[in-house]
């Protein structure tokens, strides 16, 4: 077996939405993951953001939406196309977040 196929232990620093989603993907790829955060509990900012309800997607048509990233639009285009608003909505529904968030902004 080549070394890149072995299970690895991956450390994720930061238990915000980005870190937790990275951890989920790392686990799904068959690796072990350990998540560390400087704060006493995970996702504090995101949970605070959700207190009054929050928007986690943007309903603007993609060609206009991607231009909001200005000079980084080309750089981000491929990543956002691979995980677009519909994919994010699907993930939120999978986690049964639909009652917590306004899913179209
Ligand atoms: C009041 C409010 C309302 C918001 N409303 C919305 C909204 O409606 N829709 C929306 O999409 N977004 C909203 N946001 C923004 C949203 O919360 C952030 O975009 C999101 O939390 C960013 O996630 P992240 O994982 O990139 O970073 P963060 O949530 O900031 O997570 C980073 C984590 O890394 C940890 N960390 C940093 N440095 C270190 C270190 N050196 N060692 C260990 N741990 C470290 C931090 O403690 C933190 O837990 C809102 C934010 C606020 C404050």
| Tertiary shape | globular
Give the overall average pLDDT: 87
Order of strands in the sheet with the most strands?
Answer: 1-2
In N-to-C order, the SSE pattern is EHEHHHH
Beta-strand level of the residues, as a percent range?
A: 5-15%
Report the biggest beta sheet as strand number plus sense, adding barrel if it closes: 2 strands, parallel
Q: What is the CA-based Rg, rounded?
A: 16 Å
Structure description:
The protein is mainly α and about 100 residues long. The chain starts with 8 loop residues before the first strand and ends in an 11-residue tail after the last helix. Strands 1-2 form a two-stranded parallel sheet. It folds into two domains: about 1-50, no CATH class; about 50-105, no CATH class. The mean pLDDT is about 85. Helix 1 links the parallel strand 1 and strand 2. The protein has helices at about 15-30, 45-50, 60-65, 75-80, 85-95; strands spanning about 10-15, 30-35. The structure holds flavin-adenine dinucleotide. Flavin-adenine dinucleotide (FAD) binds next to helix 1 and helix 2.
